Amino acid sequence: MFAPTPVETMTFAQREIFVKRDDLIHPDFSGNKARKFQYFLEKEYPEITKLVGYGSAQANSLHSLAVLAKMRGWQLDYYVDHIANYLQQNPQGNYLAALENGANIIEKPEHVTESIDSYVTELAKSALDNELYIPEGGRCEYAAIGLEQLGQQILDWIHEKHYSTLNLFLPSGTGTTALFLQRFFKIKRFEHEDLPEVNVLTCSCVGGDDYLRLQFNQLSENALHHPRIISNGNKYHFGKLKRECYEMWQRVCASGIEFELLYDPVGFIMLEHFFTQSSTVDNIDNTAPLMYLHQGGVLGNPSMLARYQRKYQAK
Ligand SMILES: *Cc1c(COP(=O)(O)O)cnc(C)c1O
């Protein structure tokens, strides 16, 4: 169990908002992926000596899994499609941090044509007793354990503040974090009617709103558990450089809190859009107190910034 992360205030779009600093959970194990992998940190696994995961060589989950394995005294085998030459020669960010934590990063063999996803799923079928396979990015029910503890911290904070409603904003990839949080708040309030109402608001940073809706439906058939998707009508492609995103990142970092460059710029663009709507959006009062969830990931900033600087000669 992690100690509650701090909540700070910041001015954004002429509003005072609260920032839940989940990027500060632990110096090495922090943010969204720490919450999602918390289950594997705490559960007893007498036979396990090796963790096996997969994903991108730059992913936050690579770094978090490497730290998790180290904390537990396990080896990590992490499969990737491909490691870019540049990254191999200039290790940085999550990739470097994972190597420093002893991760064994393995490129898919050249003759394999299937996706890394199905390649590792195939490997998992002949897993040894000492090996624990982890689905990509923590898109699984086990992620609920850590996210519900985060939800409880937020409820405790609202209680201290005597609020009756809170809008909680966080940008989504797979939507797992947003949905599990919304589900937690709904179920809690169903059990205890006097609890505050927490509306989880999110936006799509990966494959558009339809993709995100599809993810929600796969995670829960109960539409009450689905977060609200805030959109200004523009689609943002994951990892693609946009001047608008870079400018938003500079604006929010000027507050003194460093945000990350993949999800947060889109998050704040959509949050600003939400604030500028007439007072209710989808039956949600946009004047209610708002908390933005900082999900970590700043370790990837230097390499994203280098890309931005190459593209825009930005300073
Ligand atoms: C993984 C990640 C997300 C996306 O989380 P989902 O549960 O997939 O929506 C957002 N922000 C950061 C910093 C992340 O590492």
From TrEMBL:
> What is the superkingdom listed in this entry's lineage?
Bacteria
| Cited InterPro entries | ACCD_DCysDesulf, TrpB-like_PALP_sf
Cofactor list: pyridoxal 5'-phosphate
Keywords recorded for this protein, A-Z: Pyridoxal phosphate
Matching Gene3D superfamilies:
3.40.50.1100
Q: What's this protein's family per the entry?
A: Belongs to the ACC deaminase/D-cysteine desulfhydrase family.
Protein name in UniProt: 1-aminocyclopropane-1-carboxylate deaminase/D-cysteine desulfhydrase
